[in-house]
Structure formats: structure tokens, C-alpha cells
Amino acid sequence: MERDKWSNRSTFILAAIGSAVGLGNAWRFPGLAAKHGGGAFLLVYIIAMIFMGIPMLMAEIAIGRKVRAGAAGSMRALNRKAEPVGWIAVANGAVIEIYYACVFAWVILMFALSYKFAGLTGNPEAASNLWAETIKTTWSTEGFTTISWPVLISLIVAWGACWWCIRNGTTSVGKVVKYTVLLPVVCLLILAIRGFSMNNAMSGVAKLFVPDWNALRDSTLWVDAIGQVFYSLSTAMAIMFAYGSFLPEDSNVAVDTIIIAFSDMIISVMAGVVMFTTMAGVGMLDNMSASGIATAFIIYPQAIVQLTNVPWINAAFAYVFYFCLITLAIDSLFSIVEGVSTAVSDKFNLNKKKTTTTICLISGVISLIYVTGAGVAYLDIVDNFVNAYTLIIAGILETIVIAWAFKPEKVVSEINRNTGKFRIGNGYFNLTMKFVAPVVLTALLVWNIVTLFAGGGLYGGYPLWANILFGWGLVFLSCISGYIIAIFAKKRGVHDIGAEWKD
User: Fold this and answer.
1) Mean pLDDT, rounded, of the chain
2) What is the pLDDT of residue 451?
3) What's the pTM value of the predicted model, to 2 decimals?
4) Quick check: is 256 in a domain?
5) How far apart, in Å, are the Cα atoms of 281 and each of 204, 285, 318?
6) What is the rounded distance in angstroms from the CA atom of residue 301 to the CA atom of residue 299?
7) Which structural domain, as residue segments, surrounds residue 163?
8) Pick from 383, 305, 389, 302: which is nearest to 103 by CA?
9) N or C: which end of the chain has fewer CB within 10 A?
């Protein structure tokens, strides 16, 4: 079966940027920067990008290109016993795509409701309640039997849009990313121009870029900055292995990765400028939240209705803001599905298009749990446990396989293939992948566990059954997913094919 291929270099770069740049750039990055002293957080973020994010991104793309396989096949190619590590990354993607689709649905719904901001001009309290009142939910784990019909309709639209974008693999993705990657940049520029035109805008810029050096003493700053890099670049969730496997042999992984990583960072900073200048302009600079959901659906609506005294202008800016989020969300969602679909179709030698359709349908059905009255609480628990535990576990194990169970110099050689003067050194790669990344990620994992149990052992104050079912249960299933796949494959008589590192 012929493998998908990117039509050209720019299509791959745009697709990878689209995957890396998501909702976390638009709302989580500004919130964390506000929480941790602005420029101090940005400094640690850049350091983490250089010493963790970039080498991991390079390794995943280069290995995928070399062995022509998704995450599981790529890990197996490095060490036959390491295939389960790849399946943890695939499981991460499967879990994330299911709840991310619901967040995407909320964004679609708010876009559709943006006309209401005109009537809410000067009424920030009503604007802050618009989202919760529309989706008819609370932060409680109760209410499973009720359904929010507006969210259900939006969820169907979200999955339909996702399937349409990847229905023909790289061919349809290539046609979509030319617009969905560039449009949010245009939207952010429009919002930034408005932000800079407001009174006190420069106080917001100062808070974003001027470091509070005392903040560096706070260990949570380092934890959050490293986490933001790790989550933002789409590593450890099967995507970049898949995207790398579609690359032609003459691609320049070293340079392309730098472009992808710094594009991700630049768009994060742009989103930060928009958020900080706007909030400063409406006198809400101290109201920013590290919670993405709170920022996008509760806090920013309050700012929108105070932008001007002209109702239709406020509504117009609401449309621009939520359209920006739509374009950010769609790329990330279909890239995650692509990573899962590639791994499954590789393993079982299935038709890629049919596999993608099946995954969208199954994921869509499971995601219905998030349209219930308890959907926000369930999503909050799942999102926390995936980001705090399984993504980090996958990252730790990936670095160990790449740098300790394989020969890292071979990976470096693959990264540097086709590059010119710009080359990645063995010393840099060994330092980051053998020591910095696994040690720091392990410390981050331990920190998260200690913090959780020091606070009583129950995340968010949710009941024990919810923490077990939607938290630790999913972590456990993700970690053993490779062994479940192996049992299933054995029963079907599937034999490992391809995914072999040939020198």
C-alpha cells in the first residue's frame, strides 16, 4: 500500500506548525505568563524550548522519515521491545482528540453566538455567564443524564470538519493548512492592533516582556514553562512521527524543525501581546487566568464587551477572536487524529482512509460524554491527568529509547541528512536527550504527583470515583495500551511489517 507523501516542503511545515500551534498558544501561554512574572516565564520557556522541545521534535520527525512509520512502528524500529512506548503516545493522542473535539465545539458555539456580545456591551457580568448558560453545565461531576443540545450540534460540526480536512490524508491536509495556519496570524494581528490602540496598552506589554526576577525562585514557574513547551510542540502524542513518515527523502529536518518550533513560539508571544494589551486596556490585567477555559469563555468575553461603546464593533471583535480560535483548533484536532490513524493503519496494514473515518466515528461517539451536564468536570479531570502524567511518561520513555536503547548518533545523522552549514551536534543532542530531557521530565512527573497528594490526593476537589475513572484509570490504560494492542494483534494473526532502521 503506497504511503501518503507531502506535496512539498511548505505543506509539511505549515501542517506541522498547525499541529503545534493550538488553543494552548492562544489562552494557556498568556495565562501562565501573567501568573509567573511575564518576561521571567518567557525566558524559562525559551530555555526549555532549546534544551528539550527542539531536540525531541527533531528526533520524532527524523525517525518517522527514516523508518516510514507512526509512533509505535518508529519505537519498534529503534528497539523491538520498545513498541509499547509508541502506543502510549498513540493512546495520549486518542484520549486528547476525544476531549479536544468538545473544546473545539465550544469555540464553534461561541463563534455562532458572537452577535450576542453587541447586546451585552457594558455588561461584563452577563458576558462572563454567556458560555455557561449556553452549554448548560457546571463544574460538578453530577448531571450526567442531561445533554446540552447546542454543544451536541457543535460537536457534530467539529468532527465533520475534522474528517473533511483529513479525509484524503496529506492531499486534503495540504489544501486546508494553507489557510488555517495563516488565518489565525491575520486575526491575531487585527486583535493586536486594537489592543495597542487602547489606553494603558503599554503597561500590558511591560508586564508580558519585563521579567520579574523574583519569580524565578518559584519552582512552579519552571514546571509550567517546561510543561508548556512539551505540550505545545505536539511531542509524545504520535503526531510528529506520522508527519515525519510522510516526508520525502531529501527533506531538511534540522532546519524545518527550527522553523516549526520558533513559529510556535512567535505565535504564542503574539497571542500574549493580544491578551495583555486588551486586558490592560479594559482594566482587567490582574484578572487573567492560567486556565484556558476560563480565559477564553469567561474572562475574555468580559473584555470584549468593554472594548468600545459601539455594540456592533464589540460583536465584530468577538467574531474575529473566536474565528481565530477555530482556525487554531481545527489543525490541532485533525493532526492528532492523523497520528492515531497512521499508527493503527501501519500496525494492522489497513486502508488509511477507512481507518481515519472509523477513528473519527468512534471518537465522536465517545466524546458525547462531554456534552452532558457534567462534561466540563469530566474534561477538566481528563485534561489534567493526561497533561500531568501520561504525556510526561511517554516523553521520558521516548528519550530513554532514543538515547539509551538505541544509538543517538544515528538519529543525529538522520537529522543532519540534507542540511547545509546548519547542523545539530552530537554533544548537544546527547546532552539534551540523554540527560536534560529525561531528568527534567522525571522531576516534573514526581513534582506533579507530590503536589497532588500533598493537597489531599484528589484533583480539583472532585470525588474519588471521578479521579479514578477519568484520571488514574486512563493513565493506567494508556500505559498498558501497547500490551493490549499486542494481544489483539496476535489474535488477528498480525505480524510486524516495515518499520526497520536500515543503515
Assistant:
1) 93
2) 93
3) 0.96
4) yes
5) 8, 8, 16
6) 6
7) 23-491
8) 383
9) C
